[in-house]
Write a structure and sequence with these properties.
Blueprint: E1 4-8, E2 12-16, E3 19-23, E4 35-36, E5 41-45, E6 56-60, E7 66-69, E8 75-79, E9 87-94, E10 97-104, E11 109-116, E12 125-129, E13 137-138, E14 140-142, E15 145-152, E16 155-163, E17 166-168, E18 176-178, E19 184-190, E20 200-206, E21 209-225, E22 228-245, E23 255-263, E24 266-276, E25 279-280, E26 297-300, H1 332-340, H2 343-347, E27 351-354, E28 365-369, E29 372-375, H3 396-408, E30 412-417, H4 427-431, H5 472-488, E31 493-496, H6 504-517, E32 523-526, H7 532-536, E33 546-547, H8 550-561, H9 568-581, E34 588-590, H10 599-603, H11 613-619, H12 629-642, E35 646-650, H13 675-692, H14 695-699, E36 701-707, E37 711-718, E38 721-728, E39 734-736, E40 739-741, E41 745-750
Parallel strand pairs: 4-10, 26-27, 26-35, 27-30, 30-31, 31-32, 32-33, 34-35
Antiparallel strand pairs: 1-22, 2-3, 5-8, 6-9, 7-8, 9-10, 11-15, 12-13, 12-16, 14-15, 16-17, 16-19, 18-19, 20-21, 21-22, 21-23, 23-24, 24-25, 28-29, 36-37, 37-38, 38-41, 39-40
Helix pairs in contact: 1-3, 5-6, 8-9, 8-12, 12-13
Length: 751
């Protein structure tokens, strides 16, 4: 098929060594993230892309949608219609240069959930689910039915109904799934066009040209070089193959090439290709630690890692604190020692995420009833200062040495930053109590742990005031405190605590300040439990680079640890993540989390899925009753290390630390391992280094080849480099493409 050039970019072309080269000039700092438009269109906040919107001159829009620029240049209003393609482009002219932003038209459709009640036996019916961000929505009664109507994306969505105060699955929907906490959710399935939309991949690389192939025909192909739409190829009759020729690029910095395709049924996956000085990277030796897609993260709890300085070891002297909830003595000096002795580099890690190190209170707070105990602030999440290092962990000198040594070893250092709340002893709260939200709701009930229904105001506990980020002075104060850490120290980024509990204005203000004051790349990843829509709402060029994908983690725990669950839900959840966050997203894929029981203890059966895992960790000693759990943990790690996103190893998961929920999952790190632990650590090390040495596993397209009860097969491809990972959770071996996969095991094939 012959393609037409629908749009030809007006990029600046200069003479360089008698050849014409593109000079990529953009006012957008970082990659311009695609906009996921709402149904019918919506507003694009240009401050998410431009640090100074006053430099904007005008916009150029497609004739297939309507667009208008506000008088103050702050936003563009987009109106889509049936003729609007599923992928289009918005060009924003600034300083005489074009800046291009990909647009995705919404795929949402209207659905209605109905609960029959001909005799009106029920007094009140509500529902909550992924499509309501787990907030309660009332059903309305009419003609013998309670009903709720909304718009949702194609795919699977979990929800529950609440009938006269009792939460339960939808009695009229037999499609259910475990919620991972002993309960059951209903699943709403909206058919997709996945079997008809384009699925593109790049192959046959020859210098600066390559072939784009698609399983299904595409009508439009968009080629972005940096933040510029270099070419838009269009063919009304569709095509499944096209030759792409990249221009010569005059740039010494990292440039990313992106391709998107679409047809009448929807958009494709995306292709991402990094360039080094204008040349396509095919060898991992050209990547470095600031290429965020190459990160492999390791999260450690400072107090529970290594006690490197016995002089600063100080437990809280309170008989009401049980040992598990007190300080153990780990510190920054201990982390520094493990950086120096090569622990992280030997494992293949290139990014270390530290738990919060700000000063926490000296006393005991909170209460756990059985066995009765209070808690210390050993974890770091109860700040009484937002800029001072806790004396139990070290000081500015050792922290700067830690970062410098990490950089020598090729390691990034991320710091956990707590903005949502402070401890009641924090001067900010003591001096400005009006800067906190109300502890009590209008009805007189206490506003604590109401994570979804009052997510922007709820307190974590009565001694942890949640800050009111609807107040500009609070946003300014806390963003300044965060910026302090990346200006006073050469940190490489943040993990942000309790992201969904803070208004979007905070994240926009913080990211703008970081970009204005720091030249080096800064990676920001958030923590949000919730729907994919809620998680994605915090991720774009002007806010966070990513969030942790707890929905994918929950699905992977069930798939790999629970023999009664098949791989279909995991495959669906993986595909949903690619659809929502992009095929080459920077989301965090975790092996474990400090707010969950250890995966390996679920896998061994020593912690049950239907029990209170926190109570289990307090009331009994959790052991290892089935060593096959080590294989299951290896499979989980292999899944994280072969799928798109940033793999994140929770400290101890490299050897299989056991335990229930907090604080049983926060045991002291150990380095003297038994034979099973040594074997697992060797497997993880090999997996990490395989990923680090594979372009396909870092930048390749992703195809799910098979997903059924006991077998999952995923393939990644980057040009002619192919990686295939095969998971077998059955009791029988089987063969795939001449490769035998053992029971409860996996194979990773590179070719």
């Amino acid at each position: 098929m012959k393609f037409k050039y629908l749009i030809i970019s007006l990029l600046l072309i200069v003479s360089c060594n008698n050849e014409k080269s593109l000079v990529l000039q953009s006012e957008i700092k970082g990659m311009a993230s695609p906009v996921f438009l709402e149904y019918g269109g919506g507003d694009i906040l240009l401050a998410d892309y431009f640090l100074d919107v006053s430099v904007i001159d005008s916009i150029s829009a497609s004739d297939q949608y309507e667009a208008s620029l506000s008088e103050d240049n702050s936003k563009v209003h987009i109106k889509t219609s049936d003729v609007t393609p599923y992928v289009s482009n918005l060009r924003v002219w600034a300083g005489g240069n074009p800046n291009d932003i990909p647009l995705y038209k919404s795929t949402k459709s209207q659905i209605t959930i109905s609960i029959p009640d001909a005799k009106k036996r029920f007094k009140d019916v509500k529902m909550k689910g992924e499509f309501s961000n787990w907030q309660l929505k009332s059903l309305h009664y009419k003609a013998g039915n309670w009903s709720y109507t909304t718009k949702v994306n194609a795919g699977s969505h979990q929800y529950v109904v609440v009938i006269d105060g009792k939460e339960q699955p939808d009695p009229n929907n037999s499609n259910t799934i475990s919620n991972g906490m002993g309960g059951t959710n209903s699943v709403l399935k909206i058919e997709t066009n996945a079997d008809k939309t384009p699925q593109i991949k790049a192959s046959s690389l020859k210098g600066s040209s390559f072939t784009v192939n698609s399983k299904n025909a595409f009508n439009d192909l968009y080629l972005y070089v940096g933040n510029h739409l270099y070419k838009h190829y269009t063919e009304s009759n569709g095509a499944t193959s096209f030759e792409v020729y990249l221009p010569k690029i005059n740039s010494d910095s990292r440039t990313l090439v992106r391709l998107y395709a679409a047809n009448q049924y929807g958009k494709s996956n995306d292709i991402l290709i990094p360039l080094d000085k204008g040349t396509i990277i095919t060898n991992v030796s050209k990547l470095n630690r600031t290429d965020f897609h190459s990160q492999i993260m390791y999260f450690l709890l400072v107090d529970r890692f290594v006690d490197g300085n016995k002089k600063n070891t100080k437990k809280v002297n309170d008989p009401e604190i049980l040992p598990k909830a007190n300080y153990y003595g780990g510190d920054l000096q201990g982390v520094l020692e493990k950086i120096k002795d090569g622990y992280f580099t030997d494992l293949g890690i290139n990014t270390v995420w530290l738990s919060p190190i700000t000063q926490n209170p000296e006393g005991a707070f909170g209460l756990w009833p059985e066995p009765r105990t209070k808690f210390s602030g050993y974890h770091g999440y109860w700040p009484i200062s937002s800029t001072k290092i806790d004396h139990r962990f070290g000081d500015e000198k050792v922290f700067k040495e830690l970062i410098a040594e990490a950089h020598k070893k090729g390691l990034n250092v991320l710091l956990d930053y707590v903005a949502n709340h402070v401890h009641q002893e924090h001067p900010l709260y003591k001096n400005h109590k009006d800067w906190a939200t109300n502890l009590y709701l209008p009805d007189g009930t206490m506003n604590t742990e109401k994570w979804d229904e009052h997510r922007l105001t709820t307190w974590f506990d009565t001694f942890l005031p949640t800050l009111d980020f609807s107040k500009k002075e609070v946003v300014e104060k806390m963003t300044d405190s965060a910026v302090f850490w990346v200006t006073n120290y050469q940190l490489d980024g943040f993990r942000h605590d309790a992201t969904k509990h803070i208004q979007l204005d905070f994240w926009r203000t913080l990211t703008k300040k970081v970009k204005q004051q720091v030249e080096r790349p800064i990676y920001q990843i958030g923590e949000t439990y919730g729907s994919s829509d809620l998680i994605r709402s915090y991720v774009n060029t002007g806010m966070l680079d990513a969030q942790f994908d707890f929905n994918l983690y929950d699905a992977s725990v069930q798939a790999f640890a629970n023999p009664s669950y098949d791989f279909k839900n995991l495959a669906n959840t993986l595909q949903k993540a690619l659809d929502y966050y992009g095929s080459h997203h920077l989301m965090g894929n975790i092996s474990g989390n400090q707010d969950r029981a250890r995966f390996i203890s679920y896998a061994s059966g020593d912690v049950r899925f239907d029990e209170d895992s926190k109570k289990a960790g307090w009331t009994r000693t959790i052991g290892m009753s089935d060593t096959n759990a080590y294989n299951k943990l290896a499979m989980l790690q292999a899944f994280n290390l072969t799928t798109p996103g940033i793999p994140c190893i929770y400290y101890g998961d490299e050897y299989g630390s056991i335990g229930g929920n907090d604080p049983d999952n926060r045991k002291m790190m150990k380095f003297d391992l038994n034979v099973h632990e040594q074997r697992l650590k060797k497997q993880i090390t090999d997996l990490v280094n395989t990923r680090r040495n594979s372009m396909a596993l870092q930048y390749g397209t992703t195809t799910i080849l098979r997903a059924d009860k006991e077998v999952l097969i995923i393939r990644r491809q980057y040009f002619d480099e192919i990686a295939t990972v095969i998971f077998n959770k059955s009791a029988q071996e089987f063969t795939f493409e001449n490769t035998t996969v053992l029971p409860n095991n996996f194979n990773l094939i590179l070719h």
